[in-house]
Each structure stands twice: as structure tokens, then as C-alpha cells.
From TrEMBL:
Record-given protein name: Uncharacterized protein
Transmembrane portions of the chain: 26-43, 55-73, 79-100, 112-130, 173-192, 199-217, 223-240, 252-273
Residues in the signal sequence: 1-20
Keywords linked to the UniProt accession: Membrane, Signal, Transmembrane, Transmembrane helix
Top-level taxonomy: Bacteria, Bacillati, Actinomycetota, Actinomycetes, Micrococcales
Domain of life assignment: Bacteria
Length: 280
């Protein structure tokens, strides 16, 4: 029962990202901004640090700036530029807050490390927007060459629709729906009460199979990409599950929401860079 907020937060965040990927960039940007704010509200409480209001503000601003930057840039090479800027200024702001608190304050080191980790996770959420925009809006060439020799066509008649297809409305490659759908499956599998070794195997294999299955059914992506994306999602969720069980359930609803949303946000950067590496 103590882990319900964590699982519910992760599941709802992944579902919201999947739905937003069908609507467009504006919806995705709003969802990522909301995700950053939720993480910011609960992260200082999760880490047990002081100066919670100021640190929450820094984390939220960093995540929102990174998301808005990814949503408005006009070149593919600049999609993660504002994430880097937000991360840098966020970390600087964290250190500035610690200086302004004065000497002799308790838990200064824990506050600094914990807040910097929160800034990092919040800014990686912009990868969801970058991943959505890169193939659909900003890539120079994402046709047959991008799909490669392992490309497969969908087996279902809904392949070319904008509602269920992994491919975008223009027929070009999009991957965020696939990534979000894989996270939904991985979250459900991570909630199965099994010993860690069996749970990790279940999550990793299940998410990989889910990614490949969705690609076979709806997409025009490569099997190599789908398998890699599923493997990354499974390892990420399994690692967070292990960390959570080792540390015990988070104290408070906001902490549970933050720790549940954190791996979902972090998957954004992993999705984007995997996309840039394997599909171009």
C-alpha cells in the first residue's frame, strides 16, 4: 500500500506522455512542464533536505525552461541546448542558495547533492519533446534510409492512422509513443510482487518484448531500435525499483509522486539520444 503513490505516479505520467504524443508538441510541452513541477514539489521532501521551497523552485524552473526551450527551437542540433543551459544555471542556483543560507546549517552536503540530482532529472524530461520534434518536424531525412534494413511494417490496419500509429501523421518516424507505451508495460511489471532477481528479469524482458511487439503491430521503426529502447526502459525501471525497495517507501504523498515520476522523466533523454544514435 505504501508504494501505490509511486506506481500510480509512474503509470499516469507515462500514459499522459503517450496521449500527448498523439496530440502534438504543445501538449507534450505542457505535460513535461507539469511533470517537472510534480518532481520539484516532492524531490526535496524525498531527499530529506532543508530549504525545500527555494530548492523546489529551482528544480521546477530548470525543468520548465528546458521543456519550453525544446519546444520552440528551430534546429535539430539545438533541441537539447536549453536543457544544458537550464541544468548549468540550476546547479549554480543550488550552490548559491547554500551560500546564502550561511554557515553552520545542517545537512548542507545532502541538500546540495539531492537538489542537483533533482535539477538533472527535471531537465532530462525535455528529451520527450525533443524526441517528438526531431523526426517529425526537424529532421532533414527520415525516410527509408532512416528505417534501415531491419525495418518492418505494421501488421494491423491501423498502422497509418494518427490515433494508434507509432509513425506520425506525416508518415515520418516518431518514437515517443513507443517509448511511453513501453514504460507503461514496464511499470505494471515492476509492480508485480516478486523477488528482485525475478522482478528485474521480468521487467527487462517484458519491456523489450512490448517494444518489439508494438513495432511489429503499429510501427515502421527498426527492430534494433525497438529492442534497444525496450531494453533501456526495462533496465531503468528495474534499477529504480531496486533503489526504492532498498531505501524503503517514501514518506509522504509528494515524495511518492516525485520518485514515481523521476524515471519517466529521465527516460526522455534516453529516448532522444537513442533515437539520434540509431535512426540517423
Amino acid at each position: 500500500m505504501k508504494y501505490i503513490p509511486v506506481a500510480a505516479s509512474a503509470l499516469l505520467a507515462a500514459t499522459a506522455l503517450a496521449l500527448a504524443s498523439w496530440v502534438g508538441t504543445v501538449a507534450m510541452t505542457l505535460v513535461v512542464c507539469g511533470l517537472s513541477i510534480l518532481i520539484a514539489l516532492g524531490w526535496p521532501q524525498l531527499m530529506g533536505v532543508s530549504a525545500r521551497r527555494s530548492l523546489s523552485t529551482v528544480i521546477a524552473c530548470a525543468g520548465v525552461i528546458a521543456a519550453l526551450g525544446a519546444g520552440v527551437v528551430g534546429a535539430a542540433d539545438d533541441l537539447f541546448f536549453w536543457s544544458s543551459v537550464a541544468l548549468a544555471f540550476g546547479v549554480m542556483s543550488v550552490f548559491l542558495i547554500q551560500v546564502l543560507r550561511g554557515t553552520g546549517r545542517p545537512h548542507r552536503l545532502e541538500s546540495t547533492i539531492g537538489a542537483c540530482a533533482g535539477v538533472l532529472i527535471a531537465t532530462t524530461g525535455a528529451g520527450w519533446i525533443a524526441g517528438l520534434r526531431y523526426p517529425v518536424e526537424l529532421a532533414d531525412a527520415t525516410g527509408d534510409d532512416a528505417r534501415g534494413i531491419l525495418a518492418v511494417r505494421g501488421l494491423l490496419p491501423v498502422e497509418d492512422t494518427t490515433l494508434l500509429a507509432v509513425t506520425g501523421a506525416s508518415g515520418e518516424l516518431t518514437v515517443v509513443t513507443l517509448a511511453a507505451g513501453t514504460l507503461i508495460v514496464a511499470t505494471l511489471l515492476a509492480a508485480v510482487p516478486l523477488p528482485h532477481a525475478w522482478a528485474m528479469l521480468l521487467v527487462v524482458l517484458g519491456s523489450t518484448a512490448a517494444a518489439i511487439g508494438m513495432t511489429l503491430a503499429w510501427g515502421e521503426l527498426t527492430l534494433l531500435f525497438a529492442g534497444t529502447l525496450g531494453l533501456v526502459a526495462g533496465l531503468l525501471l528495474a534499477s529504480f525499483r531496486r533503489f526504492l525497495l532498498a531505501q524503503g517507501p517514501p514518506q509522504g504523498i509528494l515524495s511518492g509522486i516525485a520518485v514515481g515520476a523521476a524515471p519517466i522523466a529521465a527516460m526522455g533523454a534516453l529516448t532522444y539520444f537513442t533515437e539520434r544514435l540509431l535512426l540517423v
